[in-house]
């Protein structure tokens, strides 16, 4: 890990993880991960499939017992006081698990019972929760009548039924169209503006870059980078990227582009050229064989792929 962050005090942090370890058989799936989440921030965990993100989340919630390290969730030691801690936590799972036998409103009321909330208290909160999810007009609708975006917003509202201090969000916009994703992002920004704290896992790098105050990149169970998104990009990636496409791109790049840029990567028929000053390469492309190209600033996806590689990972 390249960036070391001073640990926060228990009063400052909503979630503190120190030297977390978890083994499955002989496989060390979480290897000494440490991080702290400040009150009111969005902290993102990024990593390929099988990196250890889900196991880390389950350990933090007290659903999986760790083999080493310490966890304090909303001030409570986990797993010893996990049940007490979860009363002050909301969870948005990757897959919507709404009850199809109940209406929108009934889903919220029944979920409140899991936290020991009286029905009258949840019903008092219903207008606010439904307004937050833009589902007031669907309060009496069955789950099967909702679109994918509506179901996702209801799952988000359900996670707020107990007015949590910390919200775990596992891939909150997976499977949504761009309009629905943007609406969810606006809702999450509104939560942060209200002082809520979010722990986010996502495979969408633009989502992490938009929402996260800080993030950690995890691979093979270890944290390999941590910090603010733009700082990490500046630290690890050249500021300018030129993507070159199409037939002949690879051979042209090998013969012409490689001497002009400090770093170059090839994936299929696309060549990624990274540079601080791309002027010479852009001049060569303009004078070259008519290849298609895109010139853009470096982003979080470039960082992620540099640190974790471009090879496909199997689901695990």
Describe, in plain words, how this protein is organized in 3D.
- The protein has 316 residues and is an alpha/beta fold.
- The chain has two domains: 13-228, P-loop containing nucleotide triphosphate hydrolases (Rossmann fold, 3-Layer(aba) Sandwich), CATH 3.40.50; 238-297, Alpha-Beta Plaits (2-Layer Sandwich), CATH 3.30.70.
- Helix content is 34%, strand content 28%.
- The chain has eleven helices and 14 strands.
- The protein has helices spanning 53-60, 82-86, 104-114, 119-132, 148-158, 178-193, 205-211, 229-236, 249-257, 279-287, 300-308; strands at residues 13-24, 27-38, 42-46, 68-73, 76-78, 89-92, 166-170, 197-201, 214-219, 222-227, 240-245, 263-267, 270-275, 292-297.
- The strands form three sheets. Strands 6-7-8-3-9-10 form a six-stranded mixed β-sheet, with helices on both faces. Strands 2-1-4-5 form a four-stranded antiparallel β-sheet.
- The protein is globular.
- Residues 1-5 have low confidence and may be disordered.
């Amino acid at each position: 890990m390249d960036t070391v962050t001073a640990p926060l005090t228990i009063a400052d942090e909503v979630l503190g993880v120190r030297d977390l370890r978890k083994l499955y058989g002989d496989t060390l799936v979480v290897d000494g991960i440490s991080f702290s989440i400040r009150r009111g921030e969005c902290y993102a965990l990024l990593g390929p499939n099988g990196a250890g993100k889900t196991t880390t989340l389950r350990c933090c919630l007290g659903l999986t017992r760790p083999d080493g390290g310490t966890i304090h969730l909303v001030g409570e030691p986990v797993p010893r006081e996990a049940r007490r801690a979860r009363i002050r936590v909301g969870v948005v799972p990757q897959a919507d698990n709404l009850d199809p036998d109940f209406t929108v409103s009934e889903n919220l009321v029944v979920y409140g019972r899991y936290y020991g909330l009286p029905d009258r208290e949840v019903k008092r909160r219903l207008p606010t929760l439904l307004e937050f999810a833009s589902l007031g007009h669907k309060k009496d609708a069955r789950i099967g009548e909702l679109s994918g975006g509506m179901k996702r917003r209801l799952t988000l509202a359900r996670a707020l039924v107990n007015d949590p201090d910390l919200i775990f969000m596992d891939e909150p916009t997976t499977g949504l169209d761009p309009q629905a994703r943007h609406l969810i992002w606006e809702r999450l920004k509104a939560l942060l503006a209200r002082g809520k704290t979010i722990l986010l896992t996502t495979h969408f790098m633009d989502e992490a870059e938009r929402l996260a105050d800080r993030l950690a990149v995890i691979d093979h169970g270890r944290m390999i980078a941590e910090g603010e998104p733009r700082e990490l990009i500046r630290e690890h990636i050249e500021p300018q990227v030129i993507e070159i496409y199409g037939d002949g791109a690879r051979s042209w790049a090998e013969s012409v582009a490689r001497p002009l840029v400090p770093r170059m990567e090839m994936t299929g028929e696309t060549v990624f050229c990274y540079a601080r000053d791309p002027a010479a390469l852009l001049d060569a492309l303009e004078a070259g064989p008519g290849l298609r190209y895109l010139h853009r600033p470096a982003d979080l996806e470039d960082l992620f792929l540099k640190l974790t590689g471009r090879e496909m990972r199997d689901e695990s």
